[in-house]
Amino acid sequence: MNHTEGGLVIFSANSHPSSREISKRIGERLGVELGKVQVYQEDNRGETRVQIQESVRGKDVFIIQTVSKDVNTTIMELLIMVYACRTSCARSITGVIPYFPYSKQCKMRKRGSIVSKLLASMMCKAGLTHLITMDLHQKEIQGFFNIPVDNLRASPFLLQYIQEEIPDYRNAVIVAKSPASAKRAQSFAERLRLGIAVIHGEAQDAESDLVDGRHSPPTVKIPLLIPKEKPPITVVGDVGGRIAIIVDDIIDDVDSFVAAAQTLKKHGAYKIFVMATHGILSSDAPKLIEESAIDKVVVTNTIPHEHQKLQCVKIQTVDISLILSEAIRRIYNGESMSYLFRHIGLED
């Protein structure tokens, strides 16, 4: 690859062995060895300590960090590494975070907080100058940063999997397990020239009825919203005798996916795939998938899930290190990123 003044340094954080694995793949594609850094936890206090073991003065630093099960330790490792590079006079510091943690906490709910905004502020304050991530849960999270953010897409890799690994995919229908994910399903369906189906009527998260002041009666009569009533579960679209491919951005708690698969089976789907960018697969997700009507779950390696794959043979992984390495190369060489966002609309 080309070189600008200063030099390129790629560091891999210590969150999980898979973090070093994806970092090695990126380094091999770029023809660059990983930088020397020591990241460890203090035995007596559990504090994170980082020691940069080579000069980064005047260099362009890229820190690759995947999210492990201990997400808070993952965040601290990243923040301390960024700050260490900043105080060592690195010219630029780019965080490569395939899955942005706390991305689901990006809206104000009740008396909660917008944690992803807090995390963005912490990263910028630590010294991050650029962020590369993939399929943010909500695109608006980019607005929480005051630095450039490149929100890459994994859909080209998942679309390629469908075309190459599902021989009769022309007989498939793309399914949104709820109306909220209909736009993503529509994007997949239009690119594959397939039909779309939407499952409507799944259980929604209900607000607590605790008496806590929000229910204090007003002093004047004001109109109130009518409470929502969950409609019966229906499938809008024809899935009979078809392959059903459920698409989403995150697979964490799989109960809703298992329920969707059961519904699709009842409506005549003969094979069911679940595809998503981020496979968190927490708790007993592998067991539930193994016992469900789902035939395969396809996720990318933005999050380590080797342990879950040992528990469930239905889980398969798509490698996305290629697009991450290309993004790093373009940023380092000062090239345009537009090529990586071709044919991506505002709704994608």
Task: Walk me through what this model shows.
The protein has 348 residues and is of the alpha/beta class. 29% of the residues lie in helices and 22% in strands. It contains nine helices and 14 strands. The strands form three sheets. Strands 10-9-8-11-12-13-14 form a seven-stranded mixed β-sheet, sandwiched between helices. A five-stranded parallel β-sheet has the order 1-4-5-6-7, sandwiched between helices. Strand 5 (92-97), helix 3 (115-126) and strand 6 form a beta-alpha-beta unit. Helix 1 crosses helix 9.
Write the layout of secondary structure elements.
Blueprint: E1 8-12, H1 17-30, E2 37-41, E3 48-52, E4 60-64, H2 71-87, E5 92-97, H3 115-126, E6 130-134, E7 149-152, H4 155-165, E8 172-176, H5 182-192, E9 195-200, E10 234-236, E11 243-251, H6 255-266, E12 271-279, H7 285-290, E13 296-300, H8 306-311, E14 315-318, H9 321-333
Helix pairs in contact: 1-9
Summary of the model, kept short:
The protein has 348 residues and is of the alpha/beta class.
Shape: globular
Provide the spatial order of strands within the biggest beta sheet. Answer: 10-9-8-11-12-13-14
Total number of helical segments? 9
Distance between the termini: 31 Å
List unreliable stretches of 5+ residues.
206-210
What series of H and E elements makes up the topology? EHEEEHEHEEHEHEEEHEHEHEH
State the helicity in percent bands.
Answer: 25-40%
Helix and strand composition category: alpha/beta
Q: How much strand?
A: 15-25%
